[in-house]
């Protein structure tokens, strides 16, 4: 007869066997593998780079994926270098980290997987840079006319690079203004009725005109979009228009002046055309000799000569009139 102790031992053995079978999965090799299959299948160790790669699988063509893969590998290497640098106490200001973020975004933008974020970031940076430029210039430019032109440039939609170029030009102009002011302060030291005093006055007036013209050109450059694609090609007409923009004219008056300057330029073009024709006619006359020059061509030559003189006189008179009317509206202290 089997004793009760035997049944107790049998029950305990069954329970232990069940417990072992239940816990086998928990301590199996598969469960204790620290590199599960899904982790081993990752293409990149960096989570951000891997996320970019996974996004690219859905959006980038097969032909471009290989190129993107190489670019991402290079970027990931830079990230590892940065992590090592950071661990050693480097990149305290975070500049390297910021550059890495921007570079990854730029890379994603190149392959069209950034969702437009890179361009948004660039636009935001441009605005911030423009604001910094404006604040710096407020301290940098002391001449109110230069400040006025700079503020106009801020609203003209220039790129940061173009603004920097303009800023440099305006700084150079301010240096010239300061030099002019120093010269003006020295004038009282010279007696006006001496040769030296008269020479200094002539030099000062010449400097004044140069500064006025230079500032006008800068103003015109800004008003015309900085790319020199202006309505007027003749230097004299450009200078008159620049002066008009600085003058005390209303918008309607400026529109009228611009139209008149267009007519004036056409008149100058016409004068230039006849002058060239006259030069060509004169050359023909010299080549064949005065006696051999055909009668009809002699008549045409004389006609060209009359037209050049007549139109030249009208151009000169028109310019003088425009110059007077525009310059009388300039501010008294205009340079």
Write up what this structure looks like.
The chain has 335 residues and is mostly helical. Among the domains are: 44-70 and 104-109, no CATH class; 143-230, Up-down Bundle (Receptor-associated Protein), CATH 1.20.81; 248-335, RAP domain (Receptor-associated Protein), CATH 1.20.81. The protein is 76% helix and 0% strand. It is built from 12 helices and no strands. The protein has helices at 4-23, 37-40, 47-59, 62-87, 95-110, 117-140, 144-154, 160-186, 195-223, 235-246, 251-288, 295-327. The longest helix is centred in the C-terminal third of the chain and has 38 residues, at 251-288. It is elongated, with a radius of gyration of 40 Å. Mean pLDDT is 75; it is low at 22-40 and 226-230.
Concise structural overview:
With 335 residues, the chain is mostly helical. It has helices at 4-23, 37-40, 47-59, 62-87, 95-110, 117-140, 144-154, 160-186, 195-223, 235-246, 251-288, 295-327.
Strand content: under 5%
Give the helices and strands as they follow along the chain: HHHHHHHHHHHH
* Overall pLDDT level: 75
The CATH topology annotation of the domain at 143-230 reads as Receptor-associated Protein
Q: Describe the biggest sheet?
A: none
Net shape = elongated
Query: How far do the termini sit from each other?
Result: 129 Å
Segments where pLDDT lies below 50 for 5+ residues? 22-40, 226-230
Number of DSSP E strands: 0
Structure classification: mainly alpha
Number of helices: 12
CA-based gyration radius: 40 Å
CATH class of the domain at 143-230: Mainly Alpha
**CATH architectural group of the domain at 143-230:** Up-down Bundle
Helix % is over 70%
Keywords: Coiled coil, Signal
GO molecular function, one term: low-density lipoprotein particle receptor binding
GO biological process, one term: regulation of receptor-mediated endocytosis
Protein name: Alpha-2-macroglobulin receptor-associated protein-like
């Amino acid at each position: 007869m089997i004793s009760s102790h035997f049944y107790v031992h049998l029950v305990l053995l069954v329970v232990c066997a069940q417990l072992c079978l239940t816990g086998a999965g928990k301590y199996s090799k598969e469960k204790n593998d620290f590199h599960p299959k899904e982790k081993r299948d990752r293409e990149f160790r960096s989570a951000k780079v891997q996320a970019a790669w996974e996004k690219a699988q859905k959006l980038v063509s097969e032909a471009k994926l290989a190129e993107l893969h190489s670019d991402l590998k290079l970027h990931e290497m830079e990230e590892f270098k940065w992590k090592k640098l950071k661990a050693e106490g480097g990149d305290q200001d975070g500049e390297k980290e910021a550059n890495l973020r921007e570079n990854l975004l730029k890379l994603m933008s190149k392959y069209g997987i950034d969702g437009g974020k890179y361009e948004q970031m660039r636009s935001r940076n441009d605005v911030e840079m423009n604001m910094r430029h404006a604040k710096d210039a407020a301290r940098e430019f002391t001449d109110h006319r230069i400040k006025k032109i700079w503020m106009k440039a801020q609203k003209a939609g220039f790129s940061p690079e173009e603004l920097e170029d303009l800023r440099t030009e305006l700084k150079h102009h301010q240096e010239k203004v300061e030099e002019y002011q120093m010269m003006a302060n020295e004038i009282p030291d010279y007696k006006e009725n001496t040769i030296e005093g008269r020479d200094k006055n002539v030099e000062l007036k010449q400097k004044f005109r140069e500064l006025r013209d230079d500032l006008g050109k800068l103003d015109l450059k800004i008003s015309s979009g900085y790319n020199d694609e202006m309505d007027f090609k003749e230097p004299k007409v450009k200078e008159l228009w620049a002066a008009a923009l600085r003058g005390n004219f209303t918008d309607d008056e400026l529109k009228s002046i611009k139209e008149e300057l267009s007519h004036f330029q056409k008149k100058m073009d016409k004068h230039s055309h006849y002058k060239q024709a006259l030069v060509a006619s004169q050359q023909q006359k010299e080549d064949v000799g005065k006696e051999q020059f055909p009668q009809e061509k002699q008549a045409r030559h004389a006609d060209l000569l009359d037209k050049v003189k007549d139109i030249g006189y009208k151009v000169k008179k028109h310019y003088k009139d425009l110059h007077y009317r525009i310059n009388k509206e300039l501010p008294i202290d205009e340079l």
